[in-house]
Amino acid sequence: MALNASLSSASINAAMPSVEPLTAQTTHQQLLTHVELNWHEGQREDWLKFGKPVAGRIIDRHVRIESYAAGQLFALVRWAANDHGTIRSSLDIVRAVALGEAYTTLAQVDPGGDILLSVSGWPKVAQVFHLIDAIEAADIDPCDVAPDHWRHIHNRLAIAAKPRPYTAERHQAWLARQRVSP
């Protein structure tokens, strides 16, 4: 909103949102990453391919909010159509960030997150679905996969190259690395 030079400081201050004191509840809310999911059958459908929310809230019959603690991974799928067919297919794999940590803004994700993988267009989304299915077939939870592997997939798909598979050995190396890092 552009401010007019003729506005008084009182009217500017009245237009500014008030700052509420931090309470245990607001601090807890700020530590979570909230994902808004919309569902209007056949028009706009958002869902989570994977993720383990720590909290959830139903806003109405079309909207719900899932919340994630810092460090958790989730895959947000967004699809939309109009009378002529699909107009959007996208998948983002995101790591929820801690309070004060740098993040990238992302529609429907508050405040944003560390975007590990982002693809658009049904062929690429389907390709990532197959990669997620292969990880699950290896009895590995996609939420526990090394964030670097999701970045690897993103970068390989960006240049139309085949990503390396995520094997049990790679996963064990990731788990060992987590145990030794602070």
Describe the structure.
- It is a single chain.
- This protein is of the alpha+beta class and 182 residues long.
- The protein has one domain (32-180).
- The chain is built from five helices and eight strands, in the order H-H-E-E-E-E-E-E-E-E-H-H-H.
- It has helices at residues 9-15, 24-30, 122-137, 147-158, 168-180, and strands spanning 32-40, 44-51, 55-60, 63-69, 73-82, 85-95, 104-106, 109-120.
- A five-stranded antiparallel beta barrel has the order 1-2-5-6-8.
- Strand 7 and strand 8 form a beta hairpin.
- The N and C termini lie far apart (44 Å).
- 18% of the residues are buried.
Descriptors for this entry?
182 residues; alpha+beta; five-stranded antiparallel beta barrel; globular
Q: How many strands appear in the DSSP assignment?
A: 8
Describe the largest sheet.
5 strands, antiparallel, barrel
Overall SS class: alpha+beta
Give the domain tally. Answer: 1
Mean pLDDT: 86
The first-to-last residue Cα distance is 44 Å
Helical content, roughly?
25-40%
Strand content: 35-45%
The DSSP helix count reads 5
Q: In order across it, which strands form the biggest sheet?
A: 1-2-5-6-8
Shape: globular
Name the poorly predicted regions: 1-28
Instruction: Spell the H/E element sequence.
Output: HHEEEEEEEEHHH
| Cα-atom radius of gyration | 20 Å
